[in-house]
């Protein structure tokens, strides 16, 4: 049958963690509930459940209600499987809250049911929580990790290296810049773990430790480093710079931080890398490092690296690092079994993922959920919540495609207001509008349960705010997903929707009701489009500048 009028449909995202809820729901509506997949623009292929309109909405099951309006399109239901198909027709994107048309695009209804861990309540107390970046990094993950870390006994890093820079503030407003040490270090009760998936530059991590302890932050006894983590040497930094120099002028530069991350992961992949645990036998360590240095000498004519001096340096470092080294796979799983709460801090972000990002303009690890599992040795069944950190606009450092990038005075204005300069390199970040296509792609890959919107206050001076909602090819075709082919991406025109600004300082807001109506609408719009609860909203750099959004608002 076909419904041209409005209708109500209950969706329930079927995840393994909620399968028992689904079975209970299925038993309440025998014969009326069928598994189906909505495969349409703004509705990713996922398992959903569809019910005919019941007399009363089910309660206590975490269901969310979405009403589709006939002005958007038509939904056909083929019986008896009841698999919904969305038939498109050309519509115009509109300014939210107004009737002025924007640009023509093809899209079905964009609303999604809002889901959250512990759906139906505002409770948030998972034993294992993951915080990941959803864009190109610099979303503000460190701040949320710092806030949540006050409730967690263990805070862990799973991948990346010193190319990740997290800026956090303590309660007195003191600023800390971290690169390898997890952001939970400011919680004196937390133990910080550097997992096996991280590439570790030991001189750099000891510089961080020294800087923290000089400012009164105790690190000794609160930091453990995996014996399986690979070592990053000055040699890797030298190779990183030489590779970028080779690409200079070709238009193929990656724009790396030159911190040696890629070459270190290359050593790991070619199986001639050196791990932290190798420092227990310095004779073998020296032999391995000499062989590793030969690769660089053979590959680059201008390779300058004193391998013998590095060996002597690491003889001293080996003694200093010994108290920090442990089998973190055993440690973190043992702590999980003991009931300890574990917070996992992502580095970099999904669109820089070596598999899922804008390859080759990516980092050399997996900053998505897969990297968390392999980088710590934790099973996926142990994860309780996966939070995606989303800047209210977007930024990117280095080369590579950037569909919603802004230029000119507006980009400069937002860069200055948001202090958009790299924590690691100091480079000015590129600026752009929020990209919903990329966000939904990241949400699918990572299975996000919650969203943290950051830097909402940076947009406070704008009369209107645009959000990229689709990618359109020159022939008018709307791409069904985030493209892997960069040539295809370069051809795309971004379809935008325009939302009204609020023209009001929100940096002092501490509750949802403190936010102006249009700021609330912006957050609600993101929540509606993704179907994920935007639980935390950042309105300033300090730890206290955080608004909690109730699930039912």
Task: Write structural notes for this entry.
The chain is of the alpha/beta class and 553 residues long. It is built from 13 helices and 28 strands. The chain has a ten-stranded mixed β-sheet with strand order 18-16-14-11-19-10-20-24-27-28, sandwiched between helices. Strands 1-6-7 form a three-stranded antiparallel β-sheet, with no helix packed on it. A three-stranded mixed β-sheet has the order 23-25-26. A hairpin with a 5-residue loop joins strand 12 and strand 13. Helix 4 (234-247) packs across helix 5. The longest helix is centred in the middle third of the chain and has 18 residues, at 282-299. It is globular and about 65 Å long. The two termini are 34 Å apart. Mean pLDDT is 81; it is low at 1-19 and 29-109.
Characteristic terms for this protein:
553 residues, alpha/beta, ten-stranded mixed β-sheet, three-stranded antiparallel β-sheet, 28 strands, globular
> Strand-residue fraction?
15-25%
Structural class by helix and strand composition: alpha/beta
Ends apart, CA distance between termini: 34 Å
Give me the Rg, rounded: 25 Å
Q: How many H/I helical runs?
A: 13
Q: What's the total number of strands?
A: 28
Q: Overall pLDDT, averaged?
A: 81
The level of helicity is 25-40%
Main β-sheet: number of strands, strand sense, barrel status? 10 strands, mixed
- Uncertain runs: 1-19, 29-109
Biggest sheet strand order reads 18-16-14-11-19-10-20-24-27-28
The geometry reads as: globular
Topology:
Blueprint: E1 2-3, E2 7-11, H1 19-28, E3 34-37, E4 47-50, E5 64-68, E6 74-78, E7 83-87, E8 90-94, E9 101-106, E10 128-133, H2 141-149, E11 154-157, E12 166-169, E13 175-178, E14 191-194, E15 199-200, H3 202-214, E16 223-226, E17 230-231, H4 234-247, H5 261-269, H6 282-299, H7 307-321, E18 325-326, H8 328-337, E19 342-345, H9 369-376, E20 385-391, E21 394-396, H10 408-417, E22 430-432, E23 434-435, H11 436-446, E24 450-454, E25 464-472, H12 486-491, E26 493-500, H13 517-530, E27 533-538, E28 546-548
Parallel strand pairs: 10-19, 10-20, 11-14, 11-19, 14-16, 15-17, 16-18, 20-24, 23-25, 24-27
Antiparallel strand pairs: 1-6, 2-5, 3-4, 6-7, 8-9, 12-13, 21-22, 25-26, 27-28
């Amino acid at each position: 049958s076909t419904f041209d009028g409005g209708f109500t449909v209950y969706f329930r995202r079927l995840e393994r963690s909620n399968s028992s809820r689904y079975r209970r729901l299925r038993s309440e509506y025998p014969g009326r509930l069928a598994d189906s997949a909505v495969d349409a623009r703004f509705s990713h292929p996922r398992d959903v459940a569809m019910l005919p309109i019941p007399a009363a909405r089910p309660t206590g099951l975490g269901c969310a209600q979405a009403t589709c309006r006939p002005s958007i399109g038509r939904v056909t239901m083929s019986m008896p499987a009841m698999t919904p198909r969305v038939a498109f027709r050309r519509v115009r994107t509109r300014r939210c809250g107004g009737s002025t048309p924007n640009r023509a695009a093809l899209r079905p209804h964009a609303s999604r049911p809002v889901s959250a861990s512990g759906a139906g309540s505002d409770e948030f107390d998972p034993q294992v929580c993951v915080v990941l970046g959803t864009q190109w990094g610099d979303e503000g993950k460190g701040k949320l990790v710092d806030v949540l870390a006050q409730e967690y006994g263990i805070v862990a890093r799973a991948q990346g290296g010193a190319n990740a820079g997290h800026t956090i503030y303590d309660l007195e407003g003191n600023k800390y810049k971290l690169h390898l040490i997890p952001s939970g270090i400011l919680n004196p009760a937390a133990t910080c773990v550097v997992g096996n998936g991280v590439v570790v530059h030991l001189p750099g991590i000891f510089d961080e430790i020294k800087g923290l302890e000089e400012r009164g932050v105790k690190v000794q006894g609160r930091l453990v480093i995996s014996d399986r983590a690979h070592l990053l040497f000055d040699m890797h930094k030298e190779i990183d710079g030489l590779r970028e120099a080779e690409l200079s002028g070709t238009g193929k530069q990656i724009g790396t931080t030159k911190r040696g991350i890629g070459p270190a992961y290359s050593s790991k992949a070619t199986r001639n890398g050196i791990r932290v645990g190798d420092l227990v036998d310095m004779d073998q360590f020296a032999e391995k490092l000499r062989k590793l240095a030969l690769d660089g000498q053979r590959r680059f004519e201008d390779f300058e690296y004193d391998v013998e001096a590095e060996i002597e340096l690491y003889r001293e470092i080996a003694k200093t690092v010994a108290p920090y080294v442990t089998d973190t796979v055993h440690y973190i799983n043992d702590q999980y079994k003991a009931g300890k709460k574990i917070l996992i801090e992502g580095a970099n972000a999904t669109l820089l993922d070596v598999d899922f990002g804008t390859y080759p303009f990516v980092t050399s690890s997996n900053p998505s959920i897969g990297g968390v599992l392999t980088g710590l040795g934790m099973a996926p069944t142990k994860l309780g919540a996966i939070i995606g950190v989303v800047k209210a606009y977007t930024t990117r450092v280095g080369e590579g495609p950037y569909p919603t990038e802004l230029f000119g005075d507006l980009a400069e204005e937002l860069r200055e207001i948001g202090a958009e300069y790299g924590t690691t390199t100091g480079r000015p970040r590129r600026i752009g509008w929020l990209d919903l296509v990329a966000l939904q792609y990241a949400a699918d890959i990572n299975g996000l349960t919650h969203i943290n919107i950051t830097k909402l206050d940076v947009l406070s001076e704008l009369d209107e705010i645009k959000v990229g909602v689709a990618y359109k090819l020159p022939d008018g075709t709307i791409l069904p997903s985030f493209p892997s082919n960069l040539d295809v991406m370069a051809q795309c025109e971004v379809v935008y929707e325009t939302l009204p600004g609020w023209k009001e300082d929100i940096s002092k807001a501490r509750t949802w009701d403190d936010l102006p109506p249009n700021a609330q609408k912006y957050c609600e719009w993101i929540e509606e489009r993704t179907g994920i609860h935007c639980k935390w909203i950042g309105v300033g750099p300090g730890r206290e500048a955080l608004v909690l959004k109730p699930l039912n608002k």
